[in-house]
């Protein structure tokens, strides 16, 4: 509570600073962490820094990456609901701690690639949006994936079976339950603290996007890289409904169109970054977007792929639905209606 109070005081100063823009409308925007890399740097930040031009509206954005505010990722939807920010960049895995239904579109094993992730997103989106509005007084503007969340390890591994007994950094409940199911110990650590945790042995392995990890220097403190995707790391944008409702229908249409364009661009850019980082992390060419390292690539076997694919039915959906039903009765049935045809879970 003390940490949140300090963070809110920081936000108060940010909001006060924006009052000087009284001549035009200014939105306070909470962005992705600087530490997450190129999507934040090359897509998100430029979009908000040129908000008026990109939306065609007489609105500027007072944009702050979350890791310069003192606010934690799991608090983003709370500060949006409270009106401290007009728009936030949702880090879904962390935000799902306040509303587990949001995590239902990225259970371990559900999204093995970008093509499948897009189908899952399109199907789940209206229900995600409805829950967001109901619980947080927020309108969903769009979601995009960081890309397949892959494995970095300091000690030698030859496959998923070698994770047994090891400490593995995770970022959400679904991943933690999966890691536990294969005999490893899940260690929840924030992204920005993970590189140091790997260096000090607090965790032996860690999972995140290939490009984000490269940008954050994970290959400097790990030696083995296994490009098997557990999830795709959905993130995106939401606007406070009070802010949204002050816009005319025409203004709303322009703003939504601008976010649709940016989100679609990030989907494409994310895949480009992922493919390049796969090469860069293990010293292959071409390597154009991130740093070239010389990690040892761990081959992904059919057995490893089967373990992850089977996780939806065997681990992640059962565990997720049990938790979700406690706060949102009927959510498991809703999930089956939405994604049952894709997963075979009835």
CATH class of the largest domain: Alpha Beta
- The helix-strand sequence is HEHHEHEHHEEEHEHEHEEHHEHH
Tally of individual domains:
2
Rg is 20 Å
Gross morphology is globular
In brief, what are we looking at here?
The protein is of the alpha/beta class and 346 residues long. The chain contains 13 helices and 11 strands. It has 2 domains: 2-145 and 233-267, D-Maltodextrin-Binding Protein, domain 2; 149-231 and 276-343, D-Maltodextrin-Binding Protein, domain 2 (3-Layer(aba) Sandwich).
What does the model show?
The longest helix has 33 residues, at 249-281. By secondary structure, the chain is an alpha/beta fold. It has helices at residues 2-18, 38-49, 51-55, 76-81, 92-95, 114-136, 173-181, 191-200, 210-215, 241-245, 249-281, 302-327, 331-343; strands at residues 25-31, 59-65, 87-91, 138-145, 149-153, 167-170, 185-188, 205-209, 224-226, 234-240, 296-297. The N and C termini lie far apart (41 Å). It is built from 13 helices and 11 strands. Residues 1-22 form the signal peptide. InterPro entries: DctP_fam, TRAP_DctP_sf. This is ABC transporter substrate-binding protein. Pfam families: DctP (PF03480).
